[in-house]
TrEMBL record:
<dbReference type="InterPro" id="IPR036374">
    <property type="entry name" value="OxRdtase_Mopterin-bd_sf"/>
</dbReference>
<dbReference type="GO" id="GO:0006790">
    <property type="term" value="P:sulfur compound metabolic process"/>
</dbReference>
<protein>
    <submittedName>
        <fullName>DMSO/TMAO reductase YedYZ molybdopterin-dependent catalytic subunit</fullName>
    </submittedName>
</protein>
<feature type="transmembrane region" description="Helical">
    <location>
        <begin position="120"/>
        <end position="140"/>
    </location>
</feature>
<feature type="transmembrane region" description="Helical">
    <location>
        <begin position="160"/>
        <end position="181"/>
    </location>
</feature>
<feature type="transmembrane region" description="Helical">
    <location>
        <begin position="96"/>
        <end position="114"/>
    </location>
</feature>
<feature type="domain" description="Oxidoreductase molybdopterin-binding">
    <location>
        <begin position="236"/>
        <end position="383"/>
    </location>
</feature>
<dbReference type="InterPro" id="IPR000572">
    <property type="entry name" value="OxRdtase_Mopterin-bd_dom"/>
</dbReference>
<dbReference type="GO" id="GO:0043546">
    <property type="term" value="F:molybdopterin cofactor binding"/>
</dbReference>
<keyword id="KW-0472">Membrane</keyword>
<keyword id="KW-0812">Transmembrane</keyword>
<feature type="transmembrane region" description="Helical">
    <location>
        <begin position="69"/>
        <end position="89"/>
    </location>
</feature>
<dbReference type="GO" id="GO:0008482">
    <property type="term" value="F:sulfite oxidase activity"/>
</dbReference>
<dbReference type="InterPro" id="IPR008335">
    <property type="entry name" value="Mopterin_OxRdtase_euk"/>
</dbReference>
<dbReference type="InterPro" id="IPR014756">
    <property type="entry name" value="Ig_E-set"/>
</dbReference>
<keyword id="KW-1133">Transmembrane helix</keyword>
<dbReference type="GO" id="GO:0020037">
    <property type="term" value="F:heme binding"/>
</dbReference>
Amino acid sequence: MDTPRIPAPAAALIGLLGVLAALGAGHLAAGVLEPGASPLLAVGNAAIDATPAVVKDFAVRTFGTADKLVLLIGMAVVLAGLGVLAGLLSRRAPRAGQALAVGLGALGMLAVYTRPDLGQFALLAPAVSLFAGLGAFTWLHGRALDVRATDGLAQDRRRFLLGSVAIAAGAGLSGLAGQLLGRRVDVAASQDTVAPVLPRAAKATPIPPGADFAADGTPTFLTPNADFYRIDTAFSVPRLRAEDWELRIHGMVERELRISFADLVNRPLVERTITMTCVSNEVGGPYVSTATFTGVDLRALLLEAGVKTGADQLATTSSDGWTCGTPLSVLLEPDRGALLAIGMNGRPLPAEHGFPVRMVTPGLYGYVGATKWIVEAEVTTFADFEPYWIRRGWGRLGPVKTQSRVDRPNGFAKVPAGRVVVAGTAWAQHTGVSTVEVRVDGGPWRTATLSAESTVDTWRMWRAEFDLAPGGHTVECRATDRSGYTQTAQRADVVPDGATGWHSKFFTVT
Ligand SMILES: Nc1nc2c(c(=O)[nH]1)N[C@H]1C(S)=C(S)[C@@H](COP(=O)(O)O)O[C@H]1N2
Ligand SMILES: [Mo]
């Protein structure tokens, strides 16, 4: 007699269920131990770090803030496919499926092992995942062979079907339970304890009336927290509590500082309104937002620690191991105003924007001066430490380039004939925008009306009106900053130190 073979659909199902059991059990174990140890999340995080910079830049550009969701869906599809494949290769002997369970389990363990923010117990989560996958697969495989051997005896069929349903349900419930347990770090409660501290801060420079042309289609001067652009490498948002937070400022300093959250908020608190920009922002792109941040002056902390001569970089690390390097020459400028921020627009930092504490450095792109979930700061040298994005080919210093954008009309809009309003945004953080010029169809440049200036660290809006004949038109803008520099027309890619070029929009007057 031939060795019995499991029918292909059943074999595929067994493979899929093995993967589900592994992921569900691993997620539950991680929920109990350490949420970040979920094999799915840990592998996702490792994938983000291992992804070549070009692919990552593409992902940020294409999917923006949804890039992690796309990755998650992609991983789910790949894992399901592998499960089905291994199942189909195991129609006689279970070896292929078992090998997959062990292989994926090992991958999960490796991913957890290499996360800097996870303790050694975290390894239990992918281990549980491995054994759950192996066990579920092997058991179901055996039941399927029983069905085959007895030529489909009703009781064997029932056992296989019930077992499959139970494993699917168990995996789903475990995954859900793991998700709920993982959220037990009560960020909201911790944020509630921070909220009453914020009003103690010295008020920011008041925002003058007329600081935006929102009625003409520009963004509002302050970006609501929910609309503030978000860019980071964190696959799952770190969930920290202010009560547990501590920052160590060490390295080339006279006195090492260990600062708890309570210590931090016992220092003078200030508010500063700052426009942040991401180096990945394309010409005309959306990764620029403004908030009033509440926090402690970072320069004052560095002076307290006493920076030793020879040091030129502040290397900061987030709770999930992302690293950033900021030029000390910038941070120590008397009027730079970099913050360790705890508040954003009068609210505690949202978890996605770095709760409980983040850095913000006016005039530098986020990747060199805005570490979220900051837990460590080492005074060091550029020679001694290469941060995350620098290793991936981005520029060391990261000053924000003077830029401007057309916000209205929308690209390819149809606009009624007559007077046409064009409006947009310009930024030149820490230098200040002095003029914006605008032109239509390559005609003469005209000076636009600027919105009231708040500080040199914030964006300004611009507007102008044109009488335009029906037909297609292209509008372009360019800003000049207070150093006298006018934006170059020369197009440069975002890599390695920020895009250049004039933004233009095509629209039709009807
Ligand atoms: N921990 C951590 N901080 C980070 C990043 C990150 O990936 N991890 N990305 C940086 C980048 S590239 C930018 S542009 C800003 C964006 O801050 P936001 O998401 O609050 O807008 O955060 C910076 N801080
Ligand atoms: Mo960024």
